[in-house]
Amino acid sequence: MGTFSVAIEVGDPQGQRYEPVEALVDTGATYTVLPAALLRRLGIQPIERRQFEIADDRVVEYEIGQAWIRLAGSALINVVVFGKGEHTLVGALTLEAFGLAVDPVHKRLIRVPGLMM
Hints:
single chain, mainly beta, Cathepsin D, subunit A, domain 1, two-stranded antiparallel sheet, 2 helices
């Protein structure tokens, strides 16, 4: 499929102050991963720790919290992972929450209808 990045904005708990971030779109990641330093700077607090399987089959723990995300003209509260370093990903649940899918040919996100079956 290839990879590509998108511009998102991450907001404080009140949704009043946002910071821009360039994030890799990763449909293989469950949640959106953002630098812990950015999340803490915005006043976002961890609410629990969760286990994640990573590419080399190890299981690791990361803190998660909730943050406002602006993407594709909308703003929603999403579960985010407190990442290490500057690593940023937009994960599958964020894409679904925003009603977006990957167009691999044009390396962009496209709107899709939600499912209610």
